[in-house]
Amino acid sequence: MAFKGTIVSHDISLHTGLVLSDGTSQAIGFTEGDVLNWRGNSLLFGERVSFEVVQTPTGYAAIHMVLLQEKREPIIKPGDWMAAVVGPLLVVATTYFASYFFLLPLAFAYIPAVNFVSLVMLILVASSPRGPKPRPPELSLLLLAFCGGALAVFLGILATRTRLRSEGMLVLLFSTLVMQAIVVKKYCPEIFDVRTWQMFFEFSDLLR
User: Fold this and answer.
1) Verdict on whether the full-model pTM lies above 0.90
2) So what's the architecture of 2-67 in CATH?
3) Looking at residue 20, what is its pLDDT?
4) What pLDDT was estimated at residue 106?
5) Which residues in 67-79 are b (16+ Cβ under 10 Å) and which e?
6) Domain chopping of the chain, boundaries
7) Contact yes or no for 138/101 (Cβ under 8 A)
8) pLDDT for the residue 73
9) Which residues of the chain have pLDDT under 70?
């Protein structure tokens, strides 16, 4: 019996994915080799397919999958643009809060703020479905990385599985991190001194 459904997950590194049949809430697994008319030049996420279901020792699996030429909903949704804009705005708000509450200079407040927001955005991006093309939140995350959040994004990508996790991206982020550290060391060397941070926090505690 043939079913119709939508591919809701596709992991190119594992060559597997999940397909959700119309009218159900339980997705079942498939392998790339079972997609008969797929050329392998794009992600399968969001594609409409017809398929058959078989019982395997580990559960149900989709086989004999065929891509359907149907009009799909846009991958990029209005919420994606909102998330992309909120990230930089959160950096501004967090920087101001840290500067005001802890009485830190803007440079001291900005670096923790941009790394904190970058880490939060990375977690949200990693937990959202992957699409065939880069989404606005992913582009906004990369912008934050190149504007000072490279440390959080680099470490976060190592600890999570996202589209951004590739050898080329890791090299680029690490290079950006090194350049950012050199610039900060040259123009604001005291930021690497633990005693400077202790002084600011002790001073803010005295004022409160």
Assistant:
1) no
2) Beta Barrel (2.40)
3) 92
4) 84
5) beeeeeeeeeeee
6) 2-67, 78-207
7) no
8) 47
9) 41, 70-79, 128-133, 163, 196-208
Residue 29, token pair as written in the block: 């697994």
Give yes or no for a contact between 12 and 51, defined as CB atoms under 8 angstroms apart.
Answer: no
Tokens for 203, please give them: 């001073």
pLDDT at position 71, please? 46
Token couple for 111: 């670096």
Three-state secondary structure string covering the chain = CEEEEEEEEEECCCCEEEEEECCCCCEEEEEHHHECCCCCCCCCCCCEEEEEEEEECCEEEEEEEEECCCCCCCCCCHHHHHHHHHHHHHHHHHHHHHHHHCCCCHHHHHHHHHHHHHHHHHHHHHHCCCCCCCCHHHHHHHHHHHHHHHHHHHHHHHHCCCCCCCHHHHHHHHHHHHHHHHHHHHHCHHHHCHHHHHHHHHHHHHHC
What b/e sequence results for 162-178 when a residue is b if at least 16 CB atoms lie within 10 Å of its CB, and e otherwise?
Answer: bbbeeeebeebbeebbe
